[in-house]
């Protein structure tokens, strides 16, 4: 397969200024470019010339942007533009400042289980969103998992994405797509493919994250493809059963969703699901509590409405409004509303309208002996 020629740094393609090469493969070269219209850096993928000459591939490639754009998900790489510039197929995507999972595994090897699942769970979320729309990625592999500086994941390269309703055909020549380490058996056989093929690939990806190598490392591409078709899944320390189900040869024996695969892997490895950060809610809660306390304290000092509680004896209650006796029906603690009075009722405490003393100033904590109030008493069940 012809490799696309390098563009000259500083040259322009479809209005985008080329800055440098970010990566290359058998099908494409990815550049860092600059969009002068929106004044932002972008990633520009240029496809191989012979692919642009294939009318079937051209139609599918131009449709890729529509499929990816339909996935509004935080773990799907946003596509800004796609088109044909002088016979050169290109795609413009968000530039992710960081690395891909392939580079991370190459530099660090096997990842700690919690870290591996944190990454894979984000890929699973993106895939489940695609499957819910009837889309299959078909090319899940480490180089398509982009990580920013905070290890937020973006799933990229939907070049093989197809709608389930479109059916499928045989996979490209072995090695041309670089996916043989993660390809599902039904893809190899040229059978109909649905979201369960992505689940198989995700299982391979998880295994590599945890062990540092793909599940079927062999000396030749043919041997790898044979292993996917015929050999039992490798043993995984602590997650044999999870791996066996994820890499089942029969799609019907696999997990129903990628999220289910991740959940079972967490349980097998004894890793609790990370909780969302709750400190913003905690800050708000503390702020509300402090504000409430401040208002209460302020109200006790200067507000005209105070409350206190005091005990009483049944049969000794006189209504401040009608003078009717209500003590016999309410033999419990009363809630009292205190309002700023107009006339002094005494100097040593607060009095209700019938003159029965109930609460002294110190009952309010910050009461003022030289200010006198009228007291309205109501049962605890009454609302003020």
Q: Which structural class do you get from the secondary structure elements?
A: alpha+beta
Q: Tell how many strands the DSSP assignment holds.
A: 15
Please give the radius of gyration in angstroms: 35 Å
- Whole-number tally of structural domains: 3
CATH topology of the largest domain: Transferase(Phosphotransferase), domain 1
Note poorly predicted spans. 167-178, 298-384
CATH superfamily of the largest domain: Transferase(Phosphotransferase) domain 1
How are the strands of the largest sheet arranged? 1-2-3-4-6-5
Number of helices: 10
End-to-end gap: 83 Å
Mean pLDDT: 76
CATH architecture of the largest domain: Orthogonal Bundle
Question: What shape does the CA trace take?
Answer: globular
Strand content: 15-25%
What does the model show?
- This protein is α+β, with helices and mostly antiparallel strands.
- The protein folds into three domains: 1-95, Phosphorylase Kinase, domain 1, CATH 3.30.200.20; 98-274, Transferase(Phosphotransferase), domain 1; 299-379, no CATH class.
- It is built from ten helices and 15 strands.
- It has helices spanning 49-52, 55-69, 101-108, 113-132, 185-188, 195-211, 221-230, 240-246, 258-269, 279-302; strands at 12-13, 16-24, 28-35, 40-47, 79-85, 88-94, 98-100, 135-136, 145-148, 153-155, 162-163, 305-310, 334-340, 351-352, 373-379.
- The strands form four sheets. Strands 1-2-3-4-6-5 form a six-stranded antiparallel sheet.
- A hairpin with a 4-residue loop joins strand 3 (28-35) and strand 4 (40-47).
- Helix 4 (113-132) runs antiparallel to helix 6 and helix 4 (113-132) runs antiparallel to helix 9 (258-269).
- It starts with 11 loop residues before the first strand and ends in a 5-residue tail after the last strand.
- Residues 167-178 and 298-384 have low confidence and may be disordered.
């Amino acid at each position: 397969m012809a490799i696309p020629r390098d563009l000259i740094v500083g040259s322009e393609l479809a209005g985008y200024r080329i800055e440098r090469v970010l990566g290359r493969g058998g099908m494409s070269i990815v550049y860092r470019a600059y969009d002068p219209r929106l004044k932002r850096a972008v990633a520009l993928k240029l496809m191989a010339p012979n692919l642009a000459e294939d009318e079937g591939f051209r139609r599918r490639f131009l449709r890729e942007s529509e499929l990816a754009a339909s996935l509004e998900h935080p773990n799907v790489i946003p596509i800004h533009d796609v088109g044909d510039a002088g016979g050169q197929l290109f795609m413009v995507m968000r530039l992710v400042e960081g690395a891909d999972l392939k580079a991370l595994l190459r530099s660090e090897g096997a990842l700690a289980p919690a870290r591996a699942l944190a990454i894979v769970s984000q890929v699973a979320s993106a895939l489940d969103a695609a499957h819910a729309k009837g889309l299959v990625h078909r090319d899940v592999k480490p180089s398509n998992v982009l990580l920013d500086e905070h290890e937020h994941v973006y799933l990229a390269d939907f070049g093989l994405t197809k709608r389930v309703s479109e059916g499928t055909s045989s996979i490209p020549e072995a090695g041309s797509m670089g996916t043989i380490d993660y390809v599902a058996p039904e893809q190899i056989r040229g059978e109909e493919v649905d979201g369960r093929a992505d689940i198989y690939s995700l299982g391979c990806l998880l295994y590599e994250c945890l062990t540092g190598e793909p599940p079927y490392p062999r000396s030749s591409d043919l041997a790898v493809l044979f292993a996917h078709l015929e050999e039992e899944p490798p043993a995984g320390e602590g997650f044999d059963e999870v791996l066996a189900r994820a890499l089942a040869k029969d799609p019907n024996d696999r997990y129903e969703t990628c999220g289910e695969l991740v959940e079972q892997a967490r349980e097998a490895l004894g890793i609790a699901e990370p909780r969302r950060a709750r400190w913003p809610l905690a800050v708000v809660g503390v702020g509300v509590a402090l504000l409430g306390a401040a208002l209460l304290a302020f109200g006790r000092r200067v507000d005209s409405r105070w409350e206190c509680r005091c005990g009483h004896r049944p049969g000794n209650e006189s209504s401040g409004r009608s003078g009717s006796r209500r003590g016999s029906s309410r033999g419990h603690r009363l809630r009292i509303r205190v309002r700023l009075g107009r006339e002094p009722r005494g100097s040593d405490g607060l009095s209700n309208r019938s003159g029965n003393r109930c609460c002294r100033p110190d009952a309010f904590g910050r009461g003022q002996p030289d200010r006198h109030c009228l007291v309205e008493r109501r049962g605890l069940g009454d609302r003020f």
